[in-house]
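Practice problem 4.
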């Protein structure tokens, strides 16, 4: 899910709520949803954002990217169609309405293709980790739509 926070919520308020309320709420029920991984990527303020957008002619930046991973489509469908999953759906829809501008956000399924992976493994930790530009590991999230004018 690519998310924008609703006005007048600030980005820091949005990220705080997402990380410290919604994240733990999802984590509590991750097994019910058969989720094997949940990642929040929070946009941070840097002149690099505007520079990348201007140089490539892209849209504005979003406030974050959320990833929930499942082993398979079948696991996902079984989880959301289970009686427990059905009971939880309104809980998450109601909570997301508090901090996500759904009309300006997007959700879609993907498969990951790792072409380069030079990140050194870290020691396991029990709490979410954050990195900043000064800690050297950052990522650029590029949301790609099909170029229907592309001719091969």
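Answer key:
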């Amino acid at each position: 899910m690519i998310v924008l926070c609703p006005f007048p919520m600030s980005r820091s308020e949005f990220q705080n709520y997402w990380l410290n309320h919604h994240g733990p709420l999802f984590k509590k029920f991750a097994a019910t949803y058969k989720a094997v991984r949940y990642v929040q990527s929070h946009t941070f303020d840097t002149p690099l954002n505007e520079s990348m957008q201007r140089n490539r002619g892209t849209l504005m930046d979003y406030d974050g990217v959320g990833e929930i991973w499942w082993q398979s489509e079948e696991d996902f469908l079984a989880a959301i169609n289970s009686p427990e999953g059905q009971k939880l759906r309104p809980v998450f829809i109601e909570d997301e309405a508090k901090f996500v501008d759904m009309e300006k956000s997007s959700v879609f399924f993907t498969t990951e293709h790792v072409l380069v992976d030079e990140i050194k493994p870290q020691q396991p930790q029990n709490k979410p980790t954050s990195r900043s530009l000064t800690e050297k590991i950052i990522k650029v999230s590029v949301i790609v739509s099909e170029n229907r004018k592309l001719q091969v």
